Amino acid sequence: MKLMAVDVGTQSLKASIYNENLQCLARERERYQPKTHSGNCVEIDAQIFWKALQNVSRRLPLEGIEGIAFSTLCPSLVGMDRKGEPLYPVILHLDRRSQKQAEWILQVVGMDRFRSITGNPPIPGGMSVTSMLWLKENIPLPSDVVFGHVETYLVKKLTGEFYIDPSNASFTGLYETMAYGDWNEELTKALGIPRTSLPRVLDSLSVAGKLQPEAAKALGLPSGLPVILGANDTTCAVAGSGIREPGRLLNTSGTVEILVLCTDKPITSPNFLIRTHAYRNRWLLMRTLGAGGASIEWFRKNFYPDLSYEQFYSVHIEEVLKRTEPPTIVFEPYLTGDRHRVEPLKASFSNITIDSSRDDFLYALCYFNIRFIASVLPEWEASCPLQKRIYHVGGGANEGYTSLKQRMMAEYKFIPIGETAERGAALLGFETLGVSIDPKWIDPEGKKEGEL
Length: 452
Fold this sequence. Notes:
The chain has 452 residues and is an alpha+beta fold. It has helices at residues 46-59, 99-108, 111-118, 129-138, 150-159, 166-169, 185-191, 213-219, 233-240, 293-303, 309-320, 358-374, 377-383, 399-408, 421-432, 439-442; strands spanning 2-8, 12-19, 24-31, 35-37, 41-44, 65-72, 76-80, 90-92, 146-149, 163-164, 200-201, 207-210, 226-232, 249-253, 257-263, 273-276, 283-289, 330-332, 348-350, 389-393, 413-416. The strands form 5 sheets. It has a 6-stranded mixed β-sheet, sandwiched between helices. Strands 16-17-15-14-20-21 form a 6-stranded mixed β-sheet, sandwiched between helices. It has a 5-stranded antiparallel β-sheet with strand order 4-5-8-7-9. The radius of gyration is 21 Å and the shape is globular.
């Protein structure tokens, strides 16, 4: 059996063909760029994702494909009409325009009550309910609007049905994350978002529907293929790394930098977020830096115009990160605020002297990004036994960055295993369709012949 695994990211959409040994047989990617506007607005037209999916699909060898499974960026709010057509661009996880709405939620519900249900604070843009309220206040919307994430939009395109999985729903601010439940009636009523405006919550390991003829034609696939809902990208990366038991750790380095712990009980704290795993009775605790890789890319664009993209990432940053001493410059890593708090924190550099170079700033930025992520480990160690291995995944899991993390967190062994979000989507897809996967193909330190 072969499946198409689709990973919809902030800056690119990737699609791969996997067989049931979790071997990647082919991969294609389409890049795009979100738009940033004044007022902390970060968005992208939903049609860009749909067009990217069509483009990569038509470049892949599709013969014998028996299903499609998804991994999607989250939160990624899109308001749609009942036909699934977007009414406004997708509001991305980096967006912070809805500060006023977040503060209003705290006034109406209160932090303790909100966290007891959702497990998280109502972070502006980081929990998409704040963006829902912003749209309702600023954009003319029909009374039967449907709020979903990009997952919802694409699955509607393919199957004609509105769905969202629990891992995506966990970052709406309306879902019962702590109970691994459903939309919470208390919150939907208090915040004025009726259940009729929300997609049905369907487990990650579920067939959302069959590929409809019009969508099949657009993708170059036969109609009737099962579309597996999948999960958000971090959850898929965790699944693709073979992590489903308590105490196991993963660090994903992309636009967002995240340290993840798998647990068998829901735990909350002001210092990390929580979402459901793709598997029942499992949760993922997340120490999240909203502008992880995004902060490095911001710095590259503004302070290294003389270096090409390839020179900067393939050569220069590797050399800068070989330093072994702590930086003299101090960086506060809040370019997009703090994803764990409602307060609008700002980034800053300090302890600068006339001798400070741009490489000193770059080193400080990376160093304090890592220190921010690592600072949660003592709290996690107090709540459950941790394995001393951290699987390192994502486009930012390069040798220089991983080596710096290893030096700063010497108690843990970092194990780079590439990108696993698509692999995780494929695994969830096969499991949904009843295909038994040999454990040796799931273990990231096991046999992986055929992986690209």
